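hi!! sorry for the late reply, been swamped w classes. u asked for the two structures so here they r. pasted raw, havent cleaned anything up. first the sequence of the first protein and right below it the tokens
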Amino acid sequence: MLTHLPFDPCPRRAPTPDEPLTVNQRRLPPDVRVPLHSHAWAQLAFPLRGALRISAAGMAWLAPAFRAVWIPPHIEHEVIALGEVELRTVYVAAEAAPLPLDACSVIEVSDLMRTLVEAISRVEEGDEARRDLMIRLLLTEIGRAPPLSLGLPLPTDRRLQALCGALIDDPASPLSLAEWAARVGASERTLARLFASELKMSFGAWRQQLRLARALDLIGRGRPCGEVAAELGYASQAAFSAMFKRAFGVPPGRFMQERSSPLAGEPTNNQE
């Protein structure tokens, strides 16, 4: 079981019976890849800056700033930092887990949740009563957090793997399913059948889900909506905004404005 990495400046703290939740402050080098590993505890990973792509159990999740990926115990997962990432990892003992222990998910990080995480990370020794109260409230907030549909199912068929891998690298690709068929060595009908049987969605729905996840990453980095629309292959900013609003209920600018106010006094240390 991998518990710390070569670039970690100090060991991380695992949960214990007396402290069922711990907070670890981390800063990952740009574009680093953390190979497959697992923990005996559950983990909630969320970036304050940058974004993470996490692959586990046949799915991939993209977590931009202010979203978090829940990873149950003993599930092997690979982590890729998209750019330089500052994040918090919340470790939770299995017996205290506020979310299901059999599946990963992406949740919204509320202002209260984020404030509690920062406060717990700075609690002083000897103040266990206050720490325990904050841990109980944080576990409640995690359990009540709204889920976000940012997971992408990953295929096992080699032809579908080639297609989906290429799209992950270039979400703006305009190629149709018929054009992809010629590239990966399968008929259009076969690919459509594989999308339905393996990924439980159509080619178009899978590509849109990928573009939504990538859009959140780019907007979270401060990229203007017009640039994001162009980079993701949309004909206009209006078309991109309409797609985004259908998925999240609000336009992209308002979505990020409501979620991107920094905490006062946020620490900037390099602890992992």
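now the second protein. again sequence first, tokens right under
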Amino acid sequence: MKKKRIANLIMVVIIVLIAAAGILGAGHILGWFDRSEAAAVLTDIRSLIAIERSGVSYSVGEDLQLRQGDVLKAQTGGSATVRIGESYLSLNAGTELTINDPSVAAFSAHVSTGEVFCSAHGAFDISFAEEVLKLENSTVYLSVHAGAQSVGVLSGQIAEVQPGQQCTWVNGEKSTGVMDIQSLNDFALTCIRSCPQALCFTTAQIDTLEAERLAQQKQELEDLLNSQKPTDGKNEATTEPPATTQPPATTEPPVITQPPATTEPPVITQPPATTEPPATTQPPATTEPPVTTQPSATTEPPVTTQPPATTEPPATTQPEVPKTYNCTITIRCDTILNNMDSLNPDKAAYVPESGVILQPISVEFTEGESAFDVLKRVCETANIPLEYSWQPLYDGYYLEGINHLYEFDCGDESGWMYKVNGWFPNYTISHYKLSDGDHIVLCYTCKGLGTDVGAPEWTG
């Protein structure tokens, strides 16, 4: 019995040791025990950032200390920052970065693809393709894609490239020119705006460019929306009178009402040449079929037989064209920005940096349309995912998700609400009939069942 107990104890110890070894091994790979302040750290993680370390690939968490050989991959909608002391690298979605040396004193990394915003207070190296950038007290924007790479210098100097200039490699051929602010994408503009250093582009220039782009996008969307016919109910284009209500072409007098060619006197009625009668017996001109036997102008169907203008459907019989009005609509989820710790990590990619999914735009609608009709039309046109379901109990539509953000994605009280002119109706969005000038806002609430977006406190 004693031997059996000892054997069981040994077995337990072995199991504990195996488990401990597994935990220690996993902790080593995951960086649980890395606490050096002299190494680069991955932080400001947004959405999914994957890392390959020691042959294992997994999604990383906040404040991961980096090691040599780590490969970082920012997934769609993801972004992150590598902090190297006072310097940093911002990674855009789709970027792959390999850490060659994680130490703050001699940091170096290689960009395989994607976009990186580099702000160097000290000195470190960034390589891409066959090039190596030696950064020191400078700020650059690096774009690396197959067949084309570019480096825009925003502050400091890289080799012979001055601030405001850009070096471009296309299929290995290098050229240098002026850096055009219009060529910068939203990621670059966001990084420039948040950079504490003085750069060649000012915040005012960024504001102007973003305002111009936003105005253009809004105008294009509004033009597209307002060029479309509403697709619901009585507002269909088929409410126009059908073509068959117009007097058909067959109401014109048919050709057969004209005297046919056979009504001319047949040739046999002319006296033959052998019996030519004296001149006096020639049928006088009056013996020709008198003009009166030809259809005279007066025998033409009188004008009154033509479909008179009055046969057109009178104006009173035309269906009335529905009146057109205007409203504005916007979709925002900015409350999530203050509750990112409660957000499902998989949904971070769908939350815009500004928290605004759709900027306020003006939309035409026809009498009788609901706020839901306009929302549906706008989302379809702007390619914003919209999911809804019919609720028989309320005889209306329930908004399940917009732009892949759903109820409970950011806490137990989170979900979509709508307000019109600052008022939160207590019925479904498909029941609200629009009025001219209405302002519709779709807003995502995280806490307080709407109180965080301006709704009154719920007392039910």
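hope this helps!! also noticed smth abt the second:
Confidence is low (pLDDT under 50) at residues 231-299.
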